[in-house]
Fold:
Amino acid sequence: MRRDNHFTEEYIKKHIDFYTSSAVAKRGKDLYKKGRVHFDDYIEKTDSWKFTVLGSREYQVLVKGVNNRDIQTSCTCPFDWGSICKHSVAALLFVSDNLGEEYVLQNQKHFQETLSTNNRNSKNLGIEIPDYRHIDFNFVKRNTSAHILSLLRYRQSYARYYSVEFAEKTVTFTTPNAEANVMFYMEDEKVYVKSPQSKKPSRLLSPDQAQCLTMIANSSMPKFLDEVFSGRILESEKEKLSRFGLPENVNFNDYFSYVFTEKDGLIFYPANKGVGLLPVDKNTGTRLFVWLDKLNSNELILNDIPQKKECRELGFVIRKSDRNFYDYGNRYNEFHPDDENERYEIVPITGKTRKNDSSSLGTHIREYDENLNDTYHVEKSENAKELLRLIKELNKSGNSGFQLMKRAFNHLQNEKIVYGMVEGAYQIRKKDLLPITLSPEPVDAVFEVSKKSEFLSIELKIKVGDKLLTREFSDTNTPSNIFMHRAILIIL
Structure:
């Protein structure tokens, strides 16, 4: 709500007192208390509230200029004994009690209308998008809470929709976390948005749905959903297959994938069986055809030939993070930064090794991305390839699969470049990386109890094979689940 609501409420009260008699004001108040005022619409551009008020019959009331404190009212009743009738008084009292809730009221009314239609069956259709042909941010504002709107800018800095999958009358934005997927689909010529985790109808967009719609609205393709449900995107796939010399009857998804970004909109690229494919249409202007033209015209420019790719080494970081829980009741994600919700994730990284030490990275350190293979040569052993595959599975499961994590750590023992991170660090930076060694032997936690005078003390030690190690570190801020002994880091 706006901070000046108190003054606006006082202005509405004075307006009623000035422009009507006490008898009419009392009748209007009684109408409002009896629930005879029904909200119809709010138009932001003209600051207009529309109501249906039930008196001896239904009357339409319009209230304008509340935000500017220049109130004007009109009613379809025949009242002509003063400036304001009892129906207008009742409507003004409704406005006074609901200042700042205009969009919530609009969404509630739309939701009730949608439910009345959808109650014919029991399934959760999601939230209808009436003007799906052109998505704008106003739709998001009208259909989500102020809390989620405040989180959108933060969420956009860390959450990304990596790919888009099409089916008949359905398009799904997917992420490594399947619970954050967002699906748009058409049924009975209406378009709805829903999420896989949504089990019950909701009148408001979830954080993931709001973020996805905001990305579409701010992109170069605000008419994306119209392109999808008109069939134009699926139809264009035939042209794309032909461009790469593939027959129309092959499965497009076997050769190509889609991504959607706010900057470029919808993009397709060769994937799976299509990796390495080049267009056969000379008019596409790919570098291959440019080179061939230069060869045929004896105008070869050697500077245009790509240089040999630089080499990068692959390493891994064990990073601590907090579990992310989805609140089904309130429809938003929550982080729980406490010891019970801590988890560890394995993050692949690349970089250049030190000149005299190939077992550690010295410069150009960054998180590994499969797209880096297009720019650099990243040597990967069979063990590293399997570890990368397991990490991808762990990311999809939210790092919650114990057996997967166990298998991943078994492979991690065979890697020569492995780091931990200093407490409180989340970004991959050289200064925050700690070289660590993973023990191939099982590790047991042992608590030794000793008595001094009348006091008992308990000391945590770690048993690796036949060796009993004592906890050693100088940093008093080291958390209790980190155990250090002679440059060996053990995470309990």
Observations:
- The chain is about 30% helix and 30% strand.
- Residues 114-122, 324-339, 485-489 have pLDDT under 50 and may be disordered.
- Residues 107-232 form one domain.
